[in-house]
Amino acid sequence: MVQIEGVSQVTDDTFAAEVLGSDIPVLVDFTADWCPPCRMIAPVLSQLAEEQRGRLKVVSLDVDGNPATQAAYGVLSMPTLIVFRGGEPVKSMVGARPKRRLLQELDGVFEV
Predict the structure, then answer these.
(1) Pairing between strand 57-62 and 26-31?
(2) Which family does the record assign (predicted)?
C-alpha cells in the first residue's frame, strides 16, 4: 500500500463513516501498489491535503484490498480521484496530473 504523508487510509469498512459521513468535501484516491502513476501523484495529494486542511479531506483507498468500494463506484483505472460532497460523488478524474491542473479541476468543489 502506497503511504502518502498527511493522507489517511480508508477501507471498505470505514468508507461510509470517513467519506460519506464527512461534513467537508472528501477527495478519495483509488490507488494500488502496482500502479506507477499512483506513486507519481502521491506527493501532489500530500501537498493538497496539507494546504486544504479543514476545507478538503484527502483519503486513499487500496483497490486490491477493498474491492467492494471500487466496484460500487465503477473504478477501473488507477489512479482514480473522486470527490464526494454530502455523501455523493460530485467529480471524478482518472490519471496522474500536476498539482496546478488538479487545483483547476477542483475549482468549485469547495463551494457548497
Answers:
(1) parallel
(2) Belongs to the thioredoxin family.
Of the residues 38, 83, 102, 109, only one is catalytic, namely 38
User: What are the phi and psi torsion angles at 103 (to 5°)?
Assistant: -60, -40
- This prediction has a pTM of 0.95
Residue 38 catalytic? yes
27 in Cβ contact with 58 (< 8 Å): yes
Query: CA 41, CA 39: separation in Å to the nearest integer?
Result: 6
Q: Which residues make beta-bridge pairs with 80?
A: 30, 94
Q: Which helix (H) or strand (E) holds 16?
A: none
| Separation of alpha carbons 110 and 42, rounded Å | 21
**98: annotated active-site residue:** no
From 26, 35, 75, 82, the catalytic residue: 35
